[in-house]
Amino acid sequence: DLHSFPTRRSSDLRAFLAAGIASTAALALKPGSARAQISTPAVDPEDSTLHLVDPQYREMAQAMPAMLFTPDILPDIRAAQDATTVPGSENPVFESFELPDSPASFFLYRPDTLRATPTPAIVYIHGGGYILGSAVSYHVYCYDLAQKSGAVVASVEYRLAPETPFPGPVEDCYDVLSYVFRTAARLGIDPDRISIMGASAGGGLTAALALLARDRGQIPVKAQFPIYPMLDYRTGTQAAPVDNPTTGEFVWGRAANRFGWTSLRGDYGLDDDRVGHFSPSHAATLEGLPPCFMVVGALDLFMEENAAYALRLSRDGVPVDFTIYPGAIHGFDIVPGTELTQRFDANLKQAFDRLL
Length: 356
Prior knowledge:
Elements: H1 10-18, H2 58-63, H3 74-82, E1 95-98, E2 105-109, E3 119-125, H4 139-149, E4 152-157, H5 168-182, H6 184-187, E5 189-199, H7 201-216, E6 224-227, H8 254-265, H9 275-278, E7 292-297, H10 303-315, E8 320-325, H11 339-355
Parallel strand pairs: 3-4, 3-5, 5-6, 6-7, 7-8
Antiparallel strand pairs: 1-2, 2-4
Helix pairs in contact: 5-7
């Protein structure tokens, strides 16, 4: 099970969540460090959405209001995050791969018990607002993911913004997908059963990678699993189609979202046919994409854009399994022992059995 580790105290959960969610990385910083430069928005109790949060998440939500940070403190946040790992199985077994003619690399995890030969595969993309995160932090998570799914998991180490803006990160992901596809026989992978998955910014890159693979027409993607994906650069700005006041108070908020998208955009002008590879919500059409399993919390900043994307997928003839979890905040699924996490795990397991 992805979440078979013991229930942890709130302070431990903060460090744990830091490994995958950009804003919570700040919570791992020691007193006197850059944390002093990070401010949290003033919250009017009368305007707070805390009463809407599922009771099992309220302590965590109170401990993790949406953060504000700047380029000056990004190195310290990254350093704090690099000191944490997502908990799970002890001593995960994995292989490391450097790609020829590409700055990307990946780690490979195999299920201990093979359900089929050749084996299906999942290309996994970590989160972190496009500016944080490392595949190294996800060794145990991806090893456990291989056991739960029965698939070989290739975890992408992609370059981060702002040092590497668009299209660098999604091209890195494509390079790994392409390598896994081209060397499938050697890796023991079925080339017709390669899927892609990621959470938050990793979910956004999952959606972008699905579009890029479709548009290039060289690699068949079996299914996509974007988990509360970061899809629309307008969210958190005045240009947002909807500004839902019940979303985005906790973990990842509007200011952090603007920072992440601005970092990824660099000097990209949004004026060519790659715009969907940058911000999937802006793809001209979603026709021809692989079947999609997508979830989001009702209080997650990405709820509106995820719901809109799911509707577009359906309208464009793409099979989509989409769930909004009531009372759930960003990152809800990686908190062990809650009813919502158990529901998510069961739904994801069913999706794996159906789609991989």
